[in-house]
Amino acid sequence: MENSFNKRKQEILEFNNAMEELNLRKRYETTIPKEIPDDLIVKCPSCQKFILKDNYILEHKVCPYCNYHGRLTARERIIDVLDLGYEELFSRLKEKYTDFPDYQNKLDKAKKDTNSDESVTCVHGKIDGIECCVGVMDSFFMMGSMGSLCGERITRLIEFAEKKDLPLILFTTSGGARMQEGVISLFQMAKTSAALSRFKEKGLYISVLTDPTTGGVSASFASLADITIAEPHALIGFAGKRVIERTIKETLPKEFQTAEFLLEKGYIDMICDRKELKKTLALLLRLHNYR
Question: How far lies 47's CA from each of 44, 64, 65, 111, in Å?
């Protein structure tokens, strides 16, 4: 019995000595920090805090620390807002004006990077069971710039909603007119505005301004809605802040061209958090007798 006890005691002693030696070795070894995989976490552009990517996506790409609303692709926005079973419209329309040097290469790169064929996607679907027409712009496709194809799709969506007697919702995000198409891109401002003028005689048009909505888009269909909603802290304006300051030779407020500033001035009707947006849109549609 005593021999068995001494043997066990010796084994424990040897084990403790081995662990101590291992710990000492680890203490003096140079440790190489492990790199965090790119697909595991994301960094908030606003508060610079790290967020688990899965949690960030589940929260609709809204930072849980500062409520910063990250930019969504058109596909992500459609999935976020519409019920399942929507139909994409006008996807067979193709770009015609590609004569500008290197324009076609830029289009091809944007298509490859975004898995989309243009800066706007138009769909016919339902929001909380209410049938509607929705157009969603994509800032990841050439900064959501409006060319002839983008303007044509939006115009046809407006006419489709008018024909079907359906409400129209447009999610805007854009740097403005697409410079590679010159004056052709500027024509889209007049074309979409004229179509909206006819549609609004009997239909409801809701515009949702997301970050950023600027240039020719903000100066045309984005600002012509019956109800204008914006996401928190979205950049909304026509010309850049520095350009305006140099022109008028004055310093503008820090919050200038933000959704909150424009709500205070009466340019928009409400600011809606992304998590509540689908519910809010459904409520507005029901209030206007759409079922």
Answer: 6, 10, 8, 31
State the Cα–Cα distance between residues 229 and 134, nearest whole angstrom: 14
The structural domain count of the chain equals 3
How many Cα atoms occupy the beta-carbon half-sphere of 129 within 13 Å? 3
Neighbour-count burial of 176, counting CB atoms closer than 10 A to its CB (0-12 exposed, 13-18 middle, 19+ buried): buried
| Contact status, residue 133 vs residue 122, Cβ threshold 8 Å | yes
Q: Is the distance from CB of 226 to CB of 211 less than 8 angstroms? A: no
DSSP β-bridge partners for residue 174: 213
On whether both 44 and 25 belong to a single domain, the answer is: no
One domain for residues 17 and 93: no
CA 13 to mean position of chain CA atoms = 62
* Residues 136 and 265 occupy one common structural domain: yes
Indicate the pairing of strand 130-137 with strand 227-230: unpaired
Task: Tell me the C-alpha distance between 155 and 272, whole Å.
Answer: 26
Give the range of the structural domain holding residue 278, as residue numbers without chain letter: 71-287
Q: What is the pTM of this model?
A: 0.85
Is 44 in the same domain as 134? Answer: no
Give the CATH number, domain containing residue 101. 3.90.226.10
pLDDT in tens, 229-256: 999 999 999 998 999 999 999 999 999 9
